[in-house]
Design brief:
heterodimer; A: about 350 residues; alpha/beta; Rossmann fold; eight-stranded mixed beta sheet; three-stranded antiparallel beta sheet; 12 helices; about 30% helix; about 20% strand; B: about 350 residues; 2 domains; seven-stranded mixed beta sheet; five-stranded mixed beta sheet
Chain lengths: ~350, ~350
């Protein structure tokens, strides 16, 4: 349990800057994510002394060095398990798990889905640059099929994961997607993630300037982003496009892009985003949307408090057990022999 | 005469694998050995020899892919560096138990834990004493040059199939990354299905009516049968210890002091010996080429001749335990070595010999 410490001063973004030299490459998308997280934390006014950042291995996993909180640079792929341990042992801590597409989708895939399934209350930021950056340019489990990398000179022949699909498949209660070129939206989404009780996964489409430069340009490029991205907001119709005239409708149980004002379509026909819907069917369809047929969904796609969190329910069980103890002491327990199996 | 090339140690392993007629390589990137898989992917042996190259989702997946391929009598291999080799230990133990041949290359970096990406020899215990669970050993080959990185691939497979056991090439980030000239052997064609059936009658190649089913397993819940299996394994390791020891003696004829060093450290020791001889110190080197089996007999013999032994390893001193056992602790044996990715210099090695052995 975190001790009862009172924060003595208002925490600002500057307080979250560490004294470490940042070793990411010049121009790396990670800088913007770090800055947005620092802003979000300052705004959320969580107690700085309660915050822990846990990472695995990879470029993104250097994050804990660069933020002035408690930090844990873990093992490759195991960050989710380490963060689970941190949270379960100290449920009052504000735990953030930093990972990448190599770390959490390859060797850490197993731990990742089990973290989401357990719905442990923590925030996961998944830096998706679709390449192994730290080992200098081999394909990852999110690398688009056909990509030429150092280990796929003829193009990859593997189907890439969409992290959101795994989150939905593991009955995730929060999933958001942001791009590293929009710091304000990133900050807002991180704040939403920190408000959500349960495992909140935020996928950041992040640019690796050295080994996979411009990989997300079809989504983030200034000239195309309005038509290739749909920024979802709760309670608002799913409208996008430079002219704000495109929208999503549900037809024959699948999403379809329509033009408002064409074929009798009006704004009323457009789907309204219900981020809290316990039924994740639409969320799943939104997560899967891929260019060129669809725009890529960004913003908070799912935010549901429909199931309890593992850490809270575990605490409840402990409290219950404490409230009605059948055994008062170890001596009594031994005398009762109740622990022995017949 | 083979082809002469200038190559990195990691590239030499990869090229030698293609030339040795290896059927499958399964890997995962990790510094300082990612060049092995990168070289293989660029060379595309699947287009020439038919050798499969696959980037797995983890080191654990890679070793288990090796397990699967090896069970059918194919020449399968993987490579990694220290943290990745730790992940493979479960699979290696199962393969030792199931008596499957395979080759694993460890391009060692400093540890423990994530450690560093610089060279180290601190995985000696893990490689030679088992590494995974249970009573088993791998045959461990220690290359000291890029040439040996290449040569030990086919040598490793020969031993792996001779004894049906996993074999490890234990190198380090220095040999993996440095470039030297290397003479590459001629291409050996991959075994045909017929050759595999003939050479490896234990393999799961499809059951004909003429024989019983081949079962590949490390499991036997009957303790007496499991003990029998362990006795059989121990007999095999004894035979390996009797027949497969390899080492090199350098300037030992007149040596009064002895370095024992393998891999990178043996190269440093040779320079230290040269520096020492310029000062009138007669030192020699025993270089174990096989770390398991360990050249105990040779060390025992040389201990009759020299006044003291210095174990030179880039570690806190691991091989020194085997040296002391070799001489029954009847002679002065000391250790010197830098750790955590630091490479000792020849001058430091000589100074250690002077202080710990000659003056000590």
């Amino acid at each position: 349990m975190a001790a009862e410490i009172k924060t003595t001063q208002v925490v600002t973004k500057a307080d979250y800057k560490s004294d470490q030299v940042v070793k990411w490459c010049a121009g790396c998308g990670d800088f913007a994510i770090l800055s947005a997280v620092q802003s979000a934390l300052a705004e959320s006014q969580v107690r700085k002394e309660d915050v822990v950042f846990v990472s695995g291995i990879g470029c993104s996993s250097r994050f804990p060095y660069y933020i002035n909180t408690y930090g844990f640079h873990g093992l490759h792929g195991r960050g989710a398990a380490i963060a689970s341990g941190v949270k379960i042992a100290n449920p009052k801590l504000d735990v953030w798990h930093i990972t990448g597409d190599g770390d959490s989708m390859a060797i850490g895939g197993n731990h990742f889905i089990h973290l989401v399934r357990r719905n442990i209350d923590m925030n996961v930021i998944l830096f998706n640059n679709k390449i192994y950056g730290l080992t200098k340019g081999q394909y990852s489990p999110t690398t688009p099929r056909g990509s030429i990398t150092k280990t796929s000179p003829d193009g990859t022949i593997e189907n890439p994961f969409k992290p959101g699909e795994l989150v939905m498949g593991a009955q995730g209660t929060f999933f958001a997607r942001v791009v590293d070129t929009e710091p304000k939206r990133m900050k807002e989404v991180f704040l939403e993630a920190s408000k959500h009780r349960g495992t909140s996964v935020v996928e950041v489409l992040q640019n690796c300037v050295i080994f996979n430069n411009r990989i997300h340009n079809e989504i983030t490029g200034k000239d195309v982003r309005d038509d290739h991205q749909i920024h979802l907001e709760h309670g608002k119709p799913m409208i996008f496009g430079k002219e704000k005239n495109k929208g999503l409708v549900l037809r024959a149980s699948r999403l379809e892009v329509v033009i408002i004002g064409k074929n009798g379509i009006t704004e009323k026909d457009i789907l309204v985003h219900d981020v809290n819907n316990p039924d994740d069917t639409t969320h799943y369809m939104l997560v899967r949307m891929t260019l060129p047929e669809y725009p890529v969904a960004t913003g908070v796609i799912r935010f549901c408090d429909c199931t309890g969190t593992y850490d809270a329910e575990l605490e409840l069980q402990i409290e219950k057990a404490k409230a009605k103890p059948e055994v008062k002491s170890l001596q009594e327990l031994i005398e009762q022999n109740s622990f022995l199996v017949e | 005469m083979g082809e002469l090339k200038l190559m990195k140690g990691n590239e030499a392993i990869a090229e030698a694998a293609i030339r040795a007629g290896v059927d499958a390589y399964f890997g995962y990137p990790i510094t300082p050995q990612s060049e092995v898989i990168e070289y293989l992917m660029v060379e595309k042996p699947y287009e020439t020899t038919g050798m499969v190259v696959l980037q797995a989702e983890s080191e654990i997946a890679a070793i288990n892919m090796v397990y699967g391929a090896a069970a059918s009598g194919k020449k399968a291999m993987t490579s990694s560096s220290s943290p990745g080799i730790s992940l493979k230990q479960e699979g290696i133990s199962y393969m030792a138990g199931a008596e499957l041949p395979c080759l694993i290359a460890n391009v060692v970096r400093g540890g423990p834990g994530l450690g560093t990406i610089q060279p180290s020899q601190a995985d000696y215990f893990q490689a030679t004493k088992g590494g995974g669970h249970g009573d088993y050993h791998m045959i461990v080959l220690a290359p000291a040059s890029v040439q040996e990185m290449a040569d030990f691939v086919s040598k490793g497979f020969d031993l792996a199939f001779k004894y049906r056991t996993p074999v490890m090439i234990l190198s380090d980030g220095l040999i993996g990354q440095m470039m030297e000239k290397v003479i590459l052997s001629e291409h050996t064609p991959r075994w045909t299905d017929e050759e595999i059936i003939k050479l490896s009658p234990w393999a799961t190649t499809g059951k004909p009516a003429s024989r019983e089913r081949n079962i590949i397993t490390s499991l036997d819940l009957d303790p007496y049968r499991q003990e029998e299996h362990n006795i059989h394994l121990q007999k095999k390791y004894k035979e390996i210890r009797e027949k497969e020891v390899e080492y090199e003696e350098i300037m030992c004829e007149d040596a009064e002091y002895l370095f024992v060093a393998y891999g990178s450290s043996s190269r440093i020791a040779q320079k230290a010996i040269k520096l020492g001889r310029e000062k009138g110190i007669k030192a020699g080197l025993l270089r174990p080429i096989t770390l398991y089996p360990f050249p105990s007999e040779a060390i025992r013999r040389l201990s009759q001749q020299v006044k003291g032994i210095l174990s030179l390893e880039m570690s806190a001193g691991q091989m020194i335990e085997d040296i002391r056992l070799s001489v029954d602790c009847e002679m002065k044996v000391e250790h010197f070595g830098r750790m955590g990715g630091v490479i000792h210099s020849p001058a430091e090695a000589l100074q250690a010999l002077e202080e710990k052995i000659i003056g000590g």
